Amino acid sequence: MYCRTFDKLTVTKKLGSAEGICYNEHNTAVMTLEVQHMIIAIANQKGGVGKTTTAINLGGNLAQRGRRVLLVDLDPQGNAATCLGIQKQRLEQTVGEVLLGETPIQEAIMPTGRPGFDILPATPDLAGTAVSLAGLMARETRLRQALAVVANQYDFILIDCPPSLDLLTVNGLASANQVVIPLQCEFLALEGLAQLKETIELIRTHLNSTLFIGGVVMTMYDGRANLARQVVEEVRRYFPQRIFNTIIPRNIRLSEAPSHGELIAEYDPQSRGAQAYAALAEELLQREETRR
Amino acid sequence: MYCRTFDKLTVTKKLGSAEGICYNEHNTAVMTLEVQHMIIAIANQKGGVGKTTTAINLGGNLAQRGRRVLLVDLDPQGNAATCLGIQKQRLEQTVGEVLLGETPIQEAIMPTGRPGFDILPATPDLAGTAVSLAGLMARETRLRQALAVVANQYDFILIDCPPSLDLLTVNGLASANQVVIPLQCEFLALEGLAQLKETIELIRTHLNSTLFIGGVVMTMYDGRANLARQVVEEVRRYFPQRIFNTIIPRNIRLSEAPSHGELIAEYDPQSRGAQAYAALAEELLQREETRR
Question: Rounded to two decimals, what is the model's pTM?
Answer without folding.
Answer: 0.81
